[in-house]
């Protein structure tokens, strides 16, 4: 069961379903995952994983020329009682357990970070207040590593805010114990010049629930790579994303759900709006259902709304299935535009042009926003979407 | 009493082969409470008249005037025209992704009325209007015109007309593509609004069929970009038997 739609509007959308002997998800990367940056050649831009990214705007993160500048970002963690917050060295056993860097910049971040921050929620602890992590850029270059670890049956909400100006490459690990429930909201609300490249690795324990909400508004270039694998059967991952790509911005979200264990679920839904000349959004949704992953139930969706001329969307869902014994797997991708005929229709019903645009964009995002389940985050997002629209021409 | 006055209206569009004049001097007065039928063959410019008066950017008014109670309609933006009391029921209503019918109707009513309708009375108002048009309540949660059948689109247009209570409503081929049941329901909706005496209706149609349900006060034959003949309902009967041939052959208007 699969669906691929395509309504081009200054956009390309391609989809494929492979039932193949060879994993295209793995083989189209230019090198296998590795913790060592030396294992990855410097990208030239034609590689499958780099072909949409403007390398010249990575500020040297991809070729080793970006040198960390003392304090590039400031990280503040506010956590309720019972949560342990540590700064640890590279040799801490928890680092790198959730996943391995999949591309050159992630490996560069892994090779270059000096101290990692580790936030641990003990087993069976159910937090009533969110853990808040403020990552504030102060204009430098930084390589980071964060680990968020939940013991068995622990439940927590983590809100990570990225603000300010920085050139940041990072890996973020989420380790979920058996039956744990983690919701992570990562907001990229950077200043206009910031460059942010990060890999998110979630290792979902047996019967654990992982919910990720990625919200990207700011930055010159943001490229995020959320990845999920399962440590046992019965895991459930929901990956939601919203982006609002303005004039000149490059916002890229590359997802991989690796169904490596039986009877797990995944649901991916990313929605983006674009406005302005050279606004560029990229969405890559890879789902791999391995032979062992019988009973998998998986769906991925990407929707884009192009509000003005001059914007570009690349949306590539890719589903690869190595067993037929699954509950369901599907994908959908569509890019549509808010056009003059829609504007005329709404205006002919008395609705002023700016309000018509707001109505359409709020409506477009509403369904996704409602699934977040955190009222204060939902409010903030809607307010932010309105602000983005106000700022538009 | 609201009056729409169209005087010597000339309208052109840009085509691949250059500028083309479609309306060539239209004169028409529609008063609140009156129903005018504009009938004519395909390509005569009927729809252009509707869209020009509503302010569609595709059409350029090259000369003439359109006023509503003396106010210059042509100087208004599309939404200002609607707020002034104009309404256009479209032949091909546009899909608006992400916007539910209920959200759309409320936003529109708020804009037209100048304040948000009180929620409780509004919900009842919408429900009643939908029931009389025999629309499924689930309809309100669907996205505007997305996946609607032809009949649903037209019902949705008339639903808006009932809720927005315009002074002047232009119905552009609202009858096209409707089966008999849908045509009857849509016509009944239009008649309910007409019976208030608050609306002047301009019914644009190719066929006389809808005039069995909605009786006009005036019938105008539209040909070659202008009104070729005007009369009472009996003119529709003549068209029913004789067709438009007399108006499309050389020479245009007959006596």
Automatic annotation (TrEMBL), chain A:
<dbReference type="GO" id="GO:0016226">
    <property type="term" value="P:iron-sulfur cluster assembly"/>
</dbReference>
<dbReference type="InterPro" id="IPR055346">
    <property type="entry name" value="Fe-S_cluster_assembly_SufBD"/>
</dbReference>
<protein>
    <submittedName>
        <fullName>Fe-S cluster assembly protein SufD</fullName>
    </submittedName>
</protein>
<comment type="similarity">
    <text>Belongs to the iron-sulfur cluster assembly SufBD family.</text>
</comment>
<dbReference type="InterPro" id="IPR037284">
    <property type="entry name" value="SUF_FeS_clus_asmbl_SufBD_sf"/>
</dbReference>
<feature type="domain" description="SUF system FeS cluster assembly SufBD core">
    <location>
        <begin position="140"/>
        <end position="364"/>
    </location>
</feature>
<dbReference type="InterPro" id="IPR000825">
    <property type="entry name" value="SUF_FeS_clus_asmbl_SufBD_core"/>
</dbReference>
<dbReference type="InterPro" id="IPR011542">
    <property type="entry name" value="SUF_FeS_clus_asmbl_SufD"/>
</dbReference>
<dbReference type="Pfam" id="PF01458">
    <property type="entry name" value="SUFBD_core"/>
</dbReference>
UniProtKB/TrEMBL annotation, chain B:
<dbReference type="GO" id="GO:0016887">
    <property type="term" value="F:ATP hydrolysis activity"/>
</dbReference>
<keyword id="KW-0547">Nucleotide-binding</keyword>
<dbReference type="InterPro" id="IPR027417">
    <property type="entry name" value="P-loop_NTPase"/>
</dbReference>
<comment type="similarity">
    <text>Belongs to the ABC transporter superfamily. Ycf16 family.</text>
</comment>
<protein>
    <submittedName>
        <fullName>Fe-S cluster assembly ATPase SufC</fullName>
    </submittedName>
</protein>
<dbReference type="Pfam" id="PF00005">
    <property type="entry name" value="ABC_tran"/>
</dbReference>
<feature type="domain" description="ABC transporter">
    <location>
        <begin position="4"/>
        <end position="249"/>
    </location>
</feature>
<dbReference type="InterPro" id="IPR010230">
    <property type="entry name" value="FeS-cluster_ATPase_SufC"/>
</dbReference>
<dbReference type="InterPro" id="IPR003593">
    <property type="entry name" value="AAA+_ATPase"/>
</dbReference>
<keyword id="KW-0067">ATP-binding</keyword>
<dbReference type="InterPro" id="IPR003439">
    <property type="entry name" value="ABC_transporter-like_ATP-bd"/>
</dbReference>
<dbReference type="GO" id="GO:0005524">
    <property type="term" value="F:ATP binding"/>
</dbReference>
């Amino acid at each position: 069961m699969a669906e691929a739609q395509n309504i081009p509007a200054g956009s390309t959308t391609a989809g494929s379903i492979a039932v193949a002997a060879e994993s295209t998800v793995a083989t189209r990367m230019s090198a296998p995952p590795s913790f060592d940056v030396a294992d990855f050649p410097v990208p030239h831009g034609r590689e499958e994983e780099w072909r949409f990214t403007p390398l010249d705007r990575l500020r040297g993160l991809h070729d080793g020329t970006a040198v960390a500048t003392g304090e590039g970002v400031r990280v503040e963690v506010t956590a309720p009682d019972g949560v342990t917050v540590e700064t640890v060295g590279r040799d801490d056993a928890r680092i790198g357990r959730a996943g391995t860097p999949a591309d050159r910049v992630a490996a560069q971040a892994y090779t270059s970070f000096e101290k990692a921050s580790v936030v641990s929620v003990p087993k069976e602890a159910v937090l009533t207040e969110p853990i808040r992590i403020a990552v504030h850029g102060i204009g430098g270059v930084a390589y980071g590593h964060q680990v968020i670890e939940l013991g068995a049956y622990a439940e927590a909400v983590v809100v990570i805010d990225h603000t300010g100006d920085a050139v940041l490459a990072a890996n973020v690990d989420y380790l979920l114990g058996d039956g744990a429930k983690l919701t992570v909201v990562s907001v990229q609300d950077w200043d206009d010049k910031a460059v942010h490249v990060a890999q998110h690795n979630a290792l979902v324990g047996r019967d654990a629930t992982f919910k990720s909400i990625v919200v990207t508004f700011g930055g010159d270039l943001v490229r995020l790579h959320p990845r999920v694998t399962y440590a046992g059967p019965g895991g459930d991952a929901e990956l939601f994303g919203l982006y609002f790509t303005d004039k000149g911005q490059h916002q890229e979200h590359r997802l991989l759900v690796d169904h490596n264990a039986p009877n797990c679920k995944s649901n991916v839904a990313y929605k983006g709006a674009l406005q302005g000349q050279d606004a560029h959004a990229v969405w890559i949704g890879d789902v791999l259902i391995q032979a062992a992953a019988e009973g998998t139930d998986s769906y991925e969706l990407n929707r884009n709304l192009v509000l003005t001329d001059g914007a570009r969307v690349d949306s590539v869902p890719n589903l690869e299935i190595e067993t037929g014994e699954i509950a369901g797997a599907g994908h959908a991708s569509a890019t549509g535009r808010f056009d003059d005929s829609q504007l005329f229709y709404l205006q002919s019903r008395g609705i002023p042009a700016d309000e018509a645009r707001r109505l359409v964009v709020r409506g477009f995002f509403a369904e996704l926003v409602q699934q977040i389940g955190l009222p204060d985050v939902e409010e903030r997002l809607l307010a932010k979407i309105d602000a983005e629209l106000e700022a538009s021409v | 009493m609201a009056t729409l006055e169209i005087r010597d209206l000339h309208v052109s569009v840009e085509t691949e082969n250059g500028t083309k004049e479609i309306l060539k001097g239209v004169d028409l007065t529609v008063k609140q409470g009156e129903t005018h039928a504009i009938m004519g063959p395909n390509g005569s410019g009927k729809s252009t008249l509707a869209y020009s008066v509503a302010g569609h950017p595709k059409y350029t008014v090259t000369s003439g005037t359109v006023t509503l109670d003396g106010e210059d309609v042509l100087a208004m933006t599309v939404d200002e025209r609607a707020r002034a009391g104009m309404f256009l029921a479209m032949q091909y209503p546009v899909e608006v992704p992400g916007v539910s019918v209920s959200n759309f109707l409320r936003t529109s009513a708020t804009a037209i009325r100048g304040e948000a309708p009180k929620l409780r009375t509004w919900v009842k108002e919408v429900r009643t209007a939908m029931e009389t048009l025999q629309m499924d309540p689930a309809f309100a949660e669907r996205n505007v015109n997305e996946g609607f059948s032809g009949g649903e689109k037209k019902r949705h247009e008339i639903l808006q007309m009932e809720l927005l209570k315009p002074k002047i409503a232009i119905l552009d081929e609202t009858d096209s593509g409707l089966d008999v049941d849908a045509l009857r329901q849509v016509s009944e909706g239009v008649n309910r609004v007409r019976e208030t005496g608050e609306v002047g209706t301009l019914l644009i149609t190719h066929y006389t069929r809808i005039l069995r349900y909605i009786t006009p006060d005036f019938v105008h034959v539209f040909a070659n970009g202008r009104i070729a003949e005007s009369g009472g309902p009996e003119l529709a009967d003549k068209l029913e038997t004789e067709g438009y041939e007399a108006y499309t052959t050389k020479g245009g208007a007959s006596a």
